[in-house]
Amino acid sequence: MTRPAPTALIPSSSACPLIRAATGAVVEPLAGAPFAEQPERIARRRLVLAASGLPLLALPGLAGATGSTALPLTPRQSEGPFYPQQSFFAARSDLDADLLQVTGSAALARGTPMALSGRVLNTRGEPVGGALVEIWQCDAGGTYLYTAQTLRQGDPGFQGFGRTVTDAQGRYAFRTLRPVPYGGRVPHVHVKVALTERDIRRDLLTTQVYLRGDDLSGDFVIRSAPAALRDRLIASVQTTAAEVRASWDIVVAI
Ligand SMILES: [Fe+2]
Q1: Considering only Cβ atoms within 10 Å of each terminal Cβ, which end of the chain, N or C, has fewer?
Q2: pLDDT tens column, 195-212
């Protein structure tokens, strides 16, 4: 997988201390305005938009979703406290879209392999090419690899964080782990979508994606999304003998 062009890394603005629930479980605080949908942004001139060849109702999971032609925005979700810090980036040079293999490490990632793929679209159903997509999640033991210290403590075979850039059809693809529950949270993968120009990064969306078939009823983070839009956060899942295949389209305000 081609590695994205170098991007100025902006420290997480919403990193904050963990919240320790009454049960003792470490949970992720809600950061920013998780209830809000994405604001409209005026950024057309900076975009690389390719013409969509797909009719709107052919998009996975979107048929009959709305009476209008506008696609609903993917809801925001909290970034949580585990977006990689500078010490992580200083210690780990392999940041590509294959999280199951770490350059220089002979170890294999523990857990169930998962292919996560889909498209980044705007509300008109047009693909957003050239978008930076990042994911991060805990390893199979529930440890987030987000600092140099947690890199030493966690699974050495798991990359923990990866990024890619969408192609002209807005497509992205990762090889990662099927996420596992931890600290009172249901399985999820954190996702950030940004545009880049002249090495300046502008975030379009920070959210979390869940897997269809998992019991999400008790998770307070997905419940923070508007009920009518929660389904936009759930990837469709196919399970084969070799891996889990999760498919999920992301709609951003462009
Ligand atoms: Fe998380």
Answers
A1: N
A2: 987 667 889 999 999 999
Residue 169's Cβ-side half-sphere holds a number of Cα atoms within 13 Å equal to 10
- Strands 113-122, 250-252: pairing kind: parallel
What does the mean pLDDT of the chain come to? 80
Domains of the chain: 38-252 (2.60.130.10)
Geometric angle at alpha carbon 16, from 11 and 19, rounded to 5°: 150
Q: What is the C-alpha separation between 159 and 84, in angstroms, rounded?
A: 11
Asked if residues 73 and 3 have their Cβ atoms less than 8 Å apart, the reply is no
Would you say residue 224 has pLDDT above 50? yes
CA 242 to ligand 1 centroid distance, Å:
25
Question: Containing H/E element for 161?
Answer: strand 161-165
Determine the residue type at 250: I
How many whole angstroms separate alpha carbon 250 and alpha carbon 128?
10
Confidence band of 103 (pLDDT split at 50, 70, 90): very high
Distance 19 CA to ligand 1 centre (A): 13
Cα–ligand 1 centroid distance for 44 (angstroms): 31
Give residue 198's pLDDT. 64
